[in-house]
From TrEMBL:
Listed InterPro entries: Flagell_FlgL (IPR013384), Flagellin (IPR001492), Flagellin_C (IPR046358), Flagellin_N (IPR001029)
Organism (species): Photobacterium damselae subsp. damselae CIP 102761
Cell compartment(s), UniProt: Bacterial flagellum; Secreted
Domain Flagellin N-terminal: 4-141
Pfam families in the record: Flagellin_C, Flagellin_N
GO molecular function: structural molecule activity
Lineage: Bacteria, Pseudomonadati, Pseudomonadota, Gammaproteobacteria, Vibrionales
Domain Flagellin C-terminal: 333-412
Family membership: Belongs to the bacterial flagellin family.
Name this protein carries in UniProt: Flagellar hook-associated protein FlgL
GO BP annotations listed: bacterial-type flagellum-dependent cell motility
Length: 412
């Protein structure tokens, strides 16, 4: 018959009691934290997956913060461009009013003051800052004031880059547009040349419809002069007035007194191989008119409005003044269309950001569900375990209490 010492029994009961106390304490801690897995020792396999989920959730949180920043920047950008659109629309209405050539000097002064105020407002929008104090339209030169007047002309001090924000591991989006793109590089409404109307005759209403060249790198200054070409018989026998034109390129006359075709305009290709083709169209020319064209595929809106302000200093009834004001109106129309395109670009980026945000939210929900399935506690099961463990502990405590008092001397 084997004998079990009192000390051995005592040690076994003590170990069992401590184990049950540890189990009960662990379950209590789970109920307090709401977590089934609190340390890697609780479930080593699940713990690895939980850490991976947490890392992915942290990354998504960072991308969500970046999206908030991107939306804020894009919202400010869109608001400012919308303000520019409104400014150009009001400016156009003022310039249209100046086409009334019978304005008195005090009326012109009033128009000039209003145009100057609109110009200043436009410049303020172009030099506006975001909530962090960065210039919106300076590209990556955020601390540099982008637009400065120099010698009567506007100069751009920023760069041609757009600020970028990373909103996913493989996605960066623009959160700014450079000022030269928005304000300085507006497509020329006439094509490849800008007109000068200093050579119009009294009563002329001549204007340019289009002026294009097949190879802009070879564009040179052009001068077109119009003269009376007499009359000719029309297709139905009617008398049709003929307007002749002469064309000079870079000071050299290449066409002299040829009939101008209102439907086709002027089409000219030089005699040397590789010479570009010119396509020019005009309207309402009269005998003696001369229009000069300088190569330019774009213009900046500031100089156009500044020109209108300058025109207000003198009577606007002359053909040159009227044509120049019409050119400003054409520029403002082109500027408005350009701003609308810039605003549309911002809107497209905002849609892209919104779609990415939705993807992050969907993935975040999936990760949280998977993460919670591994880490979160099943409360009903834990409470049941707690009750069972408490009862088992009480039984062990009772057994321990009885055993520790046992001795052979009790039976003597």
């Amino acid at each position: 018959m084997s004998r079990i010492s009192t000390l051995s029994q005592y040690n076994n009961l003590t170990s069992n009691l401590m184990r049950k106390q540890t189990q009960l304490s662990h379950t209590n801690n789970q109920l307090a934290t709401g977590k089934r897995v609190d340390t890697s020792g609780d479930d080593p396999v699940s713990s690895i997956s939980i850490q991976n989920y947490k890392q992915q959730l942290t990354q998504i949180g960072q991308y969500k913060d970046a999206i908030t920043l991107a939306n804020n920047r894009l919202g400010v950008l869109e608001t400012n461009i919308a303000g520019v659109e409104d400014n150009l629309d009001v400016t156009k209405q003022k310039v249209l009013g100046m086409l009334n050539g019978a304005m008195a000097a005090n009326d012109r002064k009033a128009f000039k003051d209003e145009l100057q105020s609109l110009y200043d407002g436009l410049l303020s929008l172009a030099n506006s800052k975001d909530e962090a104090g960065n210039y919106i339209f300076a590209g990556n030169q955020m601390d540099t004031k982008p637009f400065i007047e120099k010698d009567g002309y506007m100069t751009y001090q920023g760069d041609s880059q757009s600020r970028q924000t990373q909103i996913d591991s493989n996605m960066n989006v623009k959160t700014s547009l450079p000022g030269d793109q928005v304000f300085m590089d507006i497509p020329n409404p006439y094509g490849d040349f800008r007109p000068n109307f200093a050579g119009l005759t009294e009563g002329s209403k001549a204007h340019v419809l289009s002026a294009d060249i097949s190879d802009f790198s070879k564009a040179k200054a052009i001068q077109v002069s119009f003269s009376d070409g007499g009359t000719t018989a029309g297709p139905n026998g009617e008398t049709v007035k003929v307007t002749n034109y002469s064309l000079s390129i870079d000071g050299t006359e290449v066409v002299k007194d040829q009939p101008y075709d209102p439907e086709k305009g002027i089409e000219y290709t030089g005699s040397t191989a590789g010479d570009p083709t010119l396509n020019l169209k005009f309207a309402e020319m009269q005998d003696g008119d001369t229009i000069t064209l300088q190569p330019a595929q774009s213009f900046n809106i500031f100089d156009s409005i500044q020109a209108a302000i300058t025109y207000a200093d003198a009577p606007t009834s002359s053909p040159e003044a009227q044509a120049n004001l019409q050119r400003v109106i054409d520029d403002l129309d082109a500027g408005f269309v350009h701003m609308n395109q810039q605003r549309s670009e911002v809107g497209s980026i905002m849609k892209q950001v919104e779609r990415q945000q939705e993807q992050h939210l969907d993935f975040e929900l999936t990760l949280n569900t998977a993460h919670g399935g591994l880490e979160d506690l099943d409360y009903s099961s834990a409470v049941l375990d707690l009750n069972q463990q408490a009862m088992a502990l009480q039984a062990s405590q009772a057994a321990f209490s009885q055993t520790k008092n046992l001795s052979l001397f009790n039976y003597l």
